[in-house]
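Worked Example 4.2. Read the sequence first, then its structure tokens.
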Amino acid sequence: MWTHPPPEPPENPFTRIYQNLKATLSDLTALPPSTIDVILPSITTAAAALTLVYAYRNHLKRYPDSNSLPPHFFRRKGLYGKVVSVGDADNFRLYHTPGGRLMGWGWFPGRRIPESRKELKGQSIHVRIAGVDAPECAHFGKPSQPHSLESLNYLTALLTTRYVRAHLLRRDQYERVVCSVSIPRKGILGALGFKHDVGLLMLRDGMAQVYEGTYGIEFGRRQGMETKYRAAEEDARARKVGIWGLKGAYESPGQYKARFGGKEGPFTPSTVVGDKASGGEKVKGKRGVSSAAAPVVAAVAGEGKIRGRKRAAPVVVVRVAKRRKAVTGEKKK
């Protein structure tokens, strides 16, 4: 009995693509197909390995603290994580969870988020919310500002145990990371990816004011955020909500810090130029300022204004020549 031969199996599309690619490379490089069979899989494997390494370092690797963050992340990347504590009314600590729950954080074995203070030591990133300044709480014997507790409770209720995205802007001098922070909206808008800017929420509800420092002001990566921040502050001021509803003379957080000489006070040369960074000789008459900063000190003092107070120009005496002579004499001996 005559039968038809069985039909040929369909050609694998990947095999056809590979054969076409091999023929093209052989024509371009004048290499025999047998050599292409060795080189092409090696190149493909190396490219796949490099791609996986890049994806891990940029999207899946967990960074425990601010010092571990690569410099190229700033102004380019955002960190996704869970807020584990709120220490002040404008900063908090973030436990970095790359990939979120999709990568098993919070439910998969080995991906548990620590809760105790002992476990979190050295494992969280100190985040400073960009563009806003909230009333200062009591620290190191300094009294708290009016409405500081209300602002702290507001931020605690808003962020604690929530997942947020912090867009990295810069690292400040206190090892904190200045970030614009966003949280998902509630309901269907949040499911669609719409978010609230935390700084804008605080300004709208009168829990903070626009940051008024003279150095290192940040308002986020998006254009026009400073305008939105100032408009929200003016609206809250007009409605007299939060800090704008306080009775009596209002003292801003910046004025409070300047009065007590605390963090983030007005710009002074000693906060920018340090002895270690400059490598210069120490200057007599100005504690903590090196000889490299002496021209800056003289320029500021010559105008008669340091921290808003009139002072006489300091006497700058640099004993570089005498020290050099002493060192030279010791070498000769």
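Now turn to a second chain, presented in exactly the same format:
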Amino acid sequence: MQLIIGGDLVPTQSNIDLFSNGDINILFGGELLSLWDAADMQILNLEVPITDKKDPIAKCGPNLIAPTSTMKGIKALNPTLFTLANNHILDQGIQGLKSTEDILNNNGISFIGAGNNLNEANKHYIFIKDNLKIGVYACAENEFTIATENTPGANPFDPLESLDHIVTLKAECDYVIVLYHGGKEHYRYPSPYLQKVCRKMAQKGADLVVCQHSHCIGCYEKYNSSTLVYGQGNFLFDDSDSEFWQTSLLIKVNISDKLQLDYIPIVKAINSVRLADGKTAEDLLLAFHQRSCEILKSGFVEQQYRQFAANNYLLYISQFAAFGKWLSRIDRQLFNGMLAKRKYNKRQLLAIQNYIQCEAHRE
């Protein structure tokens, strides 16, 4: 049995017409499509509501939307399963999620990771072939699109619930794949917390954990008998010229008496995506494996993340200080961040830290 897992799929302004016309050969290229079609099961993260009505929710960050006409190209990919557990699926409100669910159902495409309430959102998917049962579970970090007991949205990662869901699914299946929408964007390593979460998922029965959301290729580790992938990048999401968004991985999962993985580099080609070839593919895989070796070194994950946090300190402080885009830029470029640094004294910074860290305050 062969499965293939892609990252974030979002039709954007630059390729909406191609999706609407079903021009998947232009969008993905013949070589990639041949590889895609050869798998028994294809999984993608649909990170956008499919709707013709704009009804943006109040949130931090962009409100994504793709018209229903793009479903022609999406369906032409013939995906087996979409995960909707992400931080954008509720961008256009409840109607946007409902429209997405309806159009997927009408086109015979299965989905998990979102629903009318928590009970629906945390449902899993089981794929059966060759007398093997493959369970797939999807959850997301808590942002603005999360379902509750009584309201629609994405399935949140909740350590008091999600780990039990994995245990239950493992009892029903031969293998379990968890798609976790989380981790720091544009960061190629796991944070200490993310690594802890993924390892715990493995302990509870996940054979493969794939972290999406970071928009870049990260690294992986073998933990006990499981594989943890910390970032695979987008599938097709043409929304940034950042270097992180230019390259990604497809994950090919071969299953017989054990689970084996192949990592297949892909590259963005303007508003489309292609298989990486030659030196480009070699370099991407070499860097991927090098980072994967680095995180095995004692203390590396913690030290690397402390440095990353320090590099982003001014960004967070400026946001808390409500400086805005231009004042933040002026402060960084002309004053080396002194305005933001002087906004709060040490006592005030400790209070902010306590409000963020303490469970009672955070809730």
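Notes for the reader: The chain has two domains: 2-301, 313-362. Residues 127 and 329 are 50 Å apart (CA to CA).
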